[in-house]
């Protein structure tokens, strides 16, 4: 086993985990606190990528584009919450799933009409387009390091916000017991809008950070949304800490599995079989993990206290 | 109320008499939604341009093309094929970008005695054991293009190769194709998840560790754009040269720009191929749509002319299926690739070229032919096909 390669794959896994965390953090907050199943979270991720690409095109700067995209996403999130989701809180989950599925179709079609079907490219500035030598002879893409750094900073910021501020206290209170928090005079309506806006900004941040690696296109949010749901189920719905641990876990398992499973299978399977079975099995790994965790700890690894 | 309406609608559908064969009905199944929708748009535009060029008539009959979206899913493609045959009574069903969609839809069409024409996908099964008198291809068999690339790699003295492709029908064919002709050592193969895997960081890291002389990939559609960007970011570009098939096309070149400049690929066709039909096609396409056509578009344009040759050979008698089949077997139409003939399995026997990415006079990125790699090449599965004529 090549240890340098393993290290590199772990970094790749960490980077995927960080992106998943940003997406899952918003999802888990919205699901945990507002009790709203928001399938359209992936669409907000997509809109973040489209916003950043458009603004970067206007300002000719990747960083400015990214910075402008976040407040735009916040406004979009608030708009969606006020216009579409507010009426859904009292409905059951099936209605929410239907309505937010409608939102997915709406946003995909909107993106197609506004930005065209071809997809867009978000070019990186030169200083991020290169690779950095982590260890001698191990170059690693600078941009992926930037994703890891930004993600860790945001994770730290979220931790501080949720554990050490008044707003965070209200969020935690809302996650533990909504009715009681409301009864104690917390403006739940406002809290909901705020949480949803925060979730949107996090999703948009994930989207705009993924944009230079992937292509910005309609439907880009759906594939990653499924992973994000797996993350919040494993981490415990409503728990930011759980989302972080689970996201990194999923990112690592997915990437390392993809990288080494085929080689591992080759030890005791025919070459041809191992080649095809490898990718198929690596895509199952995370679901097997989810099934195992649901069987042992149905409430997830770090469920919010007080439930 | 809803039931009553449904009843009425059903009654209406029953009462409507089946249309007499006063027009040629062509069903065209392609991907119009999802990220791959841009390919479907290119194909539809090319078919429409082909219809313009023939005055929207074949042997005096009007032509109606019904486009259907397979949504990038085999099951949807099959449903749409059934709909085109059973409800619309199409005389020809064409299109099909994806091998897995074509394989799912194939039986429905050929068993219903409807002509099925693949305008892109060329899975090995349909060229070999499953070949059928009702199936024709205006493209290629999947293995051929990578086989040409294998020859290119031999000519260039590439000693070791790393192979990457998505894990589905066409991906496996592409890998088999390059393995068949490439004489050097294949250090490793990675079949990645399809279509959901868009991040290739894990595989690219393995490529770096394996230190091959070159990297061969097949990533069609949006996967191509993403692969190229990540290849660039990984810093492999200077050390491991990239050879690809069906990965760079006229749709992602405007996104890739100079990232792809100089990139090498093999193909049966190029926009600068100098044939009368191709000049008319490329200039007409650029004039009407303001962009270069892709190979998907070229094959779709040829589809229109193949069907036209069949309909005209029987003077518009669409019931004369044997006559139409015999006409199509002659490949007696002006193809954008120049004259070619059909093998016994109804796949073209044709040339394959090495192309590279260049900038044209207006600064647009396009591809240009470097050399001819394989001449009048027939796929290797033709021998498994029992059909002869």
Q: What does the oligomeric state look like here?
A: heterodimer
The proportion of residues in beta strands of chain A is under 5%
Compute the gyration radius of chain A: what is it? Answer: 20 Å
- CATH architectural group of the largest domain in chain B: 3-Layer(aba) Sandwich
Number of separate strands of chain A: 2
Note the main sheet of chain A. Answer: 2 strands, antiparallel
Order of helices and strands of chain B: HEHEEHEHEHEHEHEHEHEHEHHHEEE
Write the layout of secondary structure elements.
The complex is a heterodimer of chains A (307) and B (389).
Chain A: H1 3-34, H2 41-59, H3 62-85, H4 93-115, H5 126-129, E1 131-135, E2 138-141, H6 142-164, H7 166-176, H8 178-183, H9 188-210, H10 220-235, H11 240-266, H12 271-296
Antiparallel strand pairs in A: 1-2
Helix pairs in contact in A: 1-6, 1-7, 1-9, 1-10, 1-11, 2-3, 2-4, 2-9, 2-10, 3-9, 6-7, 10-11, 10-12, 11-12
Chain B: H1 2-15, E1 23-30, H2 37-53, E2 57-58, E3 61-69, H3 74-86, E4 92-95, H4 99-111, E5 115-118, H5 124-127, E6 135-137, H6 144-155, E7 160-166, H7 169-181, E8 185-192, H8 201-210, E9 214-217, H9 222-233, E10 242-244, H10 253-256, E11 264-267, H11 276-289, H12 295-313, H13 321-329, E12 341-342, E13 348-359, E14 365-377
Parallel strand pairs in B: 1-3, 1-4, 4-5, 5-6, 7-8, 7-9, 9-10, 10-11
Antiparallel strand pairs in B: 2-3, 11-13, 12-13, 13-14
Helix pairs in contact in B: 2-11, 2-12, 3-4, 6-7, 12-13
If you had to describe this structure to a student in words, what would you say it looks like?
- The complex is a heterodimer of chains A (307) and B (389).
- With 307 residues, chain A is mostly helical.
- Chain A has a domain at 12-218.
- Chain A has twelve helices and two strands; from the N terminus they run αααααββααααααα.
- Chain A has helices spanning 3-34, 41-59, 62-85, 93-115, 126-129, 142-164, 166-176, 178-183, 188-210, 220-235, 240-266, 271-296; strands spanning 131-135, 138-141.
- Chain A has a two-stranded antiparallel ribbon.
- In chain A, β1 (131-135) and β2 (138-141) form a beta hairpin.
- In chain A, α2 (41-59) packs across α10, α3 runs antiparallel to α9 and α11 runs antiparallel to α12.
- The longest helix of chain A has 32 residues, at 3-34.
- Chain A is globular, with a radius of gyration of 20 Å.
- The model of chain A has no long low-confidence stretch (mean pLDDT 89).
- Chain B starts with a helix and ends in a 12-residue tail after the last strand.
- Chain B has helices at residues 2-15, 37-53, 74-86, 99-111, 124-127, 144-155, 169-181, 201-210, 222-233, 253-256, 276-289, 295-313, 321-329; strands at residues 23-30, 57-58, 61-69, 92-95, 115-118, 135-137, 160-166, 185-192, 214-217, 242-244, 264-267, 341-342, 348-359, 365-377.
- Chain B is built from 13 helices and 14 strands.
- Chain B is of the alpha/beta class.
- Chain B folds into two domains: 2-140 and 274-350, Response regulator (Rossmann fold); 144-267, Response regulator (Rossmann fold, 3-Layer(aba) Sandwich), CATH 3.40.50.
- Residues 11-20 of chain B have low confidence and may be disordered.
- In chain B, the strands form two sheets. In chain B, strands 7, 8, 9, 10, 11, 12, 13 and 14 form an eight-stranded mixed β-sheet that branches. In chain B, strands 2-3-1-4-5-6 form a six-stranded mixed β-sheet, with helices on both faces.
- The longest helix of chain B is centred in the last third of the chain and has 19 residues, at 295-313.
- At the A-B interface, α1, α11 and α12 of A face α2, β8, α8, α9 and α10 of B.
């Amino acid at each position: 086993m090549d240890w340098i390669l393993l290290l590199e794959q772990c970094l790749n896994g960490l980077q995927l985990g960080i992106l998943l965390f940003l997406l899952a953090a918003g999802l888990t907050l919205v699901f945990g606190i507002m009790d709203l199943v928001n399938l359209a979270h992936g669409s907000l991720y997509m809109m973040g990528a489209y916003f950043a690409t458009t603004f970067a095109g206007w300002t000719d700067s990747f960083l400015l584009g990214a910075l402008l995209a976040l407040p735009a996403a916040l406004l979009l999130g608030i708009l969606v919450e006020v216009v579409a989701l507010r009426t859904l809180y009292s409905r059951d989950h099936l209605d929410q799933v239907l309505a937010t599925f409608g939102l997915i179709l709406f946003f995909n079609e909107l993106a197609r009409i506004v930005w065209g079907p071809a997809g867009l490219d978000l070019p990186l500035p030169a200083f991020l387009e290169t690779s950095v030598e982590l260890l001698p002879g191990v170059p690693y893409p600078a941009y992926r390091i930037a994703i890891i750094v930004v993600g860790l900073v945001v994770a730290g910021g979220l931790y501080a916000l949720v554990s050490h501020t008044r707003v965070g206290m209200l969020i935690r209170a809302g996650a533990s017991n909504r009715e009681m928090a409301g009864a104690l005079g917390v403006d739940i309506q406002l809290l909901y809008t705020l949480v949803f806006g925060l979730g949107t900004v996090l999703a948009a941040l994930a989207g705009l950070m993924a944009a230079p690696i992937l292509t910005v296109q309609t439907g880009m949010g759906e594939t990653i949304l499924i992973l994000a749901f797996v993350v919040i189920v494993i981490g415990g719905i409503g728990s930011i800490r759980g989302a972080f641990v689970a996201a990194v876990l999923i990112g690592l398992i997915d990437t390392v599995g993809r990288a080494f499973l085929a080689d591992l299978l080759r030890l005791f399977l025919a070459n041809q079989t191992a080649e095809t079975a490898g990718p198929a099995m690596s895509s199952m790994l995370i679901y097997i993990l989810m099934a195992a965790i649901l069987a042992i700890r149905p409430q997830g690894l770090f469920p919010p206290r007080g439930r | 109320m809803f039931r009553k309406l449904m009843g009425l609608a059903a009654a209406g559908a029953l009462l409507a008499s089946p249309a007499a064969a006063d027009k040629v009905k062509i069903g065209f199944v392609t991907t119009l939604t999802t990220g791959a929708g841009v390919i479907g748009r290119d194909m539809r535009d090319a078919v429409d341009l082909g219809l313009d060029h023939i005055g929207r008539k074949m042997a005096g009959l009007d032509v109606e093309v019904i486009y259907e979206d397979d949504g990038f899913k085999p099951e949807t493609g099959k449903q749409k094929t059934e709909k085109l045959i059973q409800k619309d009574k199409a005389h020809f069903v064409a299109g099909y970008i994806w091998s897995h969609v074509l394989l799912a839809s194939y039986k429905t069409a050929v068993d219903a005695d409807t002509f099925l024409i693949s305008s892109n996908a060329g899975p090995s099964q349909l060229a070999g054991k499953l070949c059928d008198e009702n199936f024709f291809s205006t493209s290629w068999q999947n293995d051929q293009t990578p086989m040409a690339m294998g020859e290119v790699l031999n000519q260039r003295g590439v000693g070791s190769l790393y192979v990457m492709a998505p894990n589905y029908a066409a991906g496996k064919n592409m890998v088999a194709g390059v393995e068949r002709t490439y004489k050097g050592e294949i250090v490793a193969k990675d079949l990645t998840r399809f279509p959901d895997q868009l991040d290739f960081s894990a595989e690219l890291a393995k490529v770096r560790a394996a230190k091959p002389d070159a990297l061969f990939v097949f990533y069609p559609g949006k996967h191509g754009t993403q692969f190229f960007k990540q290849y660039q970011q990984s810093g492999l570009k200077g050390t491991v040269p990239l050879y690809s098939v069906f990965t760079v096309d006229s749709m992602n070149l405007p996104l890739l720009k100079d990232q792809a400049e100089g990139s090498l690929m093999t193909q049966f066709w190029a926009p600068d191929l100098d044939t009368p039909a191709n000049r008319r096609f490329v200039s007409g396409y650029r004039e009407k749509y303001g962009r270069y056509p892709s190979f998907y578009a070229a094959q779709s344009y040829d589809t229109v002319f193949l069907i036209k040759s069949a309909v005209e050979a029987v003077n518009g008698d669409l019931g004369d299926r044997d006559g139409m089949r015999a006409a199509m077997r002659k490949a007696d139409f002006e193809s954008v690739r120049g004259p070619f003939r059909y093998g016994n399995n109804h796949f073209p026997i044709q040339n394959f070229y090495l192309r590279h990415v260049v900038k044209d006079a207006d600064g647009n990125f396009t591809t240009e032919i470097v050399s001819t790699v394989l001449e009048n090449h027939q796929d290797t599965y033709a021998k498994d096909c029992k059909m002869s004529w």
